[in-house]
Amino acid sequence: MRQASRRAMKPVWTYVMVECACGKQSSIRIDQYNRRNQTWACRSCAFAGRTNHRKGTGVKNDPDKLACRNSYYKAKQRVKINHKNAYGSVEFRFESFEQWFAELGPRPEGMTVDRIDPMGHYEPGNVRWATAQEQARNRNPKYTWTTKP
Ligand SMILES: [Zn+2]
Questions:
Q1: Model pTM?
Q2: Which of 4, 18, 55, 93 is the 20 to 30 Å CA partner of 113?
Q3: Is 98 part of a structural domain of the chain?
Q4: Distance 38 CA to ligand 1 centre (A)
């Protein structure tokens, strides 16, 4: 019963199919359509005329950098939260993503960041891209991690 009444509360909108000048069709809510004086441009056309919008200039729009940046933040986070108690004596010594990217370059498909010396820090000279298999081989025997006193 409750479910039925809740469903009845849900506003019902009318959607209209609109066609942009470029031929792309999209369905939008009719009140939005009316608000725009019955004209509509699809997203790509709406942005097409702008030369100075930020899209394409940032790290987010660079697929190479994006994968690398995710690794940067993940590594940083692992150290910060001392993931699996394995990072107690490890420091994150990169000062910026730019420094990180200069060191590692774009991330190859399926690879993750590995520390060359597993007891070393995340710092220039001690990081590389490695496959999971390579990392397992490089890892010290289990349970030899030292933790912070
Ligand atoms: Zn369009």
A1: 0.54
A2: 55
A3: yes
A4: 15
